[in-house]
Amino acid sequence: MGFLEIAKNLMSIPSYFEDDGIHNEREISEFVNEFLKKNTHLDLQEQIVEGKRHNIIARDEGEPQLMFCCHLDTVGPKKGWTHKEFGADVDGDKLYGLGASDMKGGIACLLDALESIGDTKGLVVLFDVDEEYQFKGIRKFVSEYDLHPKLAVFPEPGLAIRNGHRGLVEIYFQTVGKTGHAARPSLGRNAIMGTYQAIEHLMNELDKWTHEDLGSTSCNVAFLRGGVNKGYDERGELAVSGKDSGNNIPDICEAVLDIRTATEEPMADTISRILNDFLVDRDYRMDCFSVRHNYGALFVPKTRLSVVEKIFQEVVGSVVYPDKLGYQEWGFGEAKILQQKFADIDCVYLGPGPTGTGHKPDEFVSISEMKKARDIFQRLIEEYCCHS
Q: Mutual orientation of helices 334-341 and 136-144 as an angle, nearest 10°?
């Protein structure tokens, strides 16, 4: 079939997730499953994640040496497309479609390489769900499998050896103050101001954690809401008042922070301590602290990637790593979840497509880059898994 036709097939299948139970990765999982059954020697296992959503684990009988990790989902459709989102349009060297670069183009390259490679020993391929949402697929995988390959490759866009990215700590907390009349603010404790000051203090503290390649640790205030505490509604959500009246001192404020860590620290417990100590010292109380994500940074030293460098050099013509801006712009990925569970695995992101078009209208992948990525994947499989 070839990588281009495989990619067109993949992009014609919607695989974004919605709670209606209709839109999910089931159809694309079935396509991949049938392709692997027909064109490879690998044994297939289905791992239920939730409902009709499942991972596919394809592997041979050898002790794992090389692993590919591919997410089947995409972000949802968006307005602004001039090409068909699910049409897989070709224009010159560009293949357009939702998921073209992130990461159906990379999956197509890998499937094409698997079709042509023959028998292997030590190969594992994970096709997982929910990478663009809550990482439910990779979390389910690491909770049930204990595999320790030497190298794990994630075919994400950017034809470079992406050997690191910043971590992700996402937290929710409430600041509890003391209400009172707005004419006498000194008699209360303004929870909104206390939260603002605590976040500002945290940002200053985060400057301590930097990395030579990954840069600085950042903090994004993703959600902030405060007012007078009215308790919890029938859905269990905090109810506040104050939007239509300014004569009360707000005694409750809730916040969501997204922190991208440049090192293994700070983790959620350290961040909680920094915020709590600051608030308690100023007669506030921190409440309902919860953690959505809690992962440190990923960084694999280049000295551990000599085999990858050699193959990349031979196929592409030069060895390419991200520059400092590239490390900063790259978001969090599944490799850290895998490595945090299995510390001895070296992980890299390496696949076709520009990094700047994913999650945007008119997403595309370069066909010439796909050819190079396909050859790199085949060479990696031959190097790690085809020795007699």
A: 20
Q: Where are the beta strands (DSSP E) in the chain?
A: 43-50, 53-59, 66-71, 89-91, 94-96, 123-128, 151-154, 164-165, 168-176, 210-211, 215-216, 218-232, 238-241, 252-260, 285-295, 298-299, 346-349, 364-366
Question: Looking at residue 47, which CATH number applies to its domain?
Answer: 3.40.630.10
**Cα gap 241→236, rounded to integer Å:** 16
Whether the CB-CB separation of 126 and 49 falls below 8 Å is answered with: no
- For residues 181 and 224, state if they share a domain: yes
Eight-class DSSP state of 104? I
Domain of residue 214, residue span: 168-295
Query: How confident is the prediction for the chain on average, in pLDDT?
Result: 94
N residues, the chain: 388
Q: What is the pLDDT of residues 72-111, one digit of tens each?
A: 999 999 999 999 999 888 999 999 999 999 999 999 999 9
Domain count, the chain: 2
CA-wise closest residue to 118 among 381, 312, 374, 377: 381
What whole-number distance in Å separates Cα of residue 103 and Cα of residue 354? 11
DSSP per-residue letters across 234-260: TTS-EEEE-TT--SB---EEEEEEEEE
Q: What is the pTM of this model?
A: 0.91
